[in-house]
Specification:
It is a single chain. This protein is an alpha/beta fold and 99 residues long. It contains 3 helices and 3 strands. Strands 2-1-3 form a 3-stranded parallel beta sheet, with helices on both faces.
């Protein structure tokens, strides 16, 4: 039995609704093609985003839960879909780490 391909949806998490919206839209399009999309935002409340993003210092998330789940998702994935919409100096260290 084969499994569906899995794609991890990486990119900045700034609190801008577009950071959530593109993942939702990409997930719908990928699902229609039989691909499972793993979003690092699933199960995470938008109000927990800090001005610096969804950082490791965010008490609403916790550093270990954040990085362990995302790393496990990346390890499980067959590929990454990375969205880098912001020009320097606003770059997400987490996104570059995912890459």
């Amino acid at each position: 039995m084969t499994r569906a391909p899995v794609i991890y949806l990486g990119g900045p998490i700034t609190g801008d609704p577009r950071d959530w919206a593109w993942r939702f839209e990409a997930g719908k399009l990928l699902a229609a093609a039989g691909v499972v999309a793993l979003s690092p935002l699933r199960g995470k409340p938008p109000e927990a985003v800090t001005p610096g993003g969804y950082g490791l210092d965010n008490p609403a998330v916790g550093p270990r839960a954040l990085t362990w789940r995302d790393k496990a998702d990346i390890d499980l994935s067959d590929g990454l879909l990375i969205h880098l919409p912001y020009l320097p100096p606003r770059q997400a260290i987490g996104t570059w780490t995912e890459l």
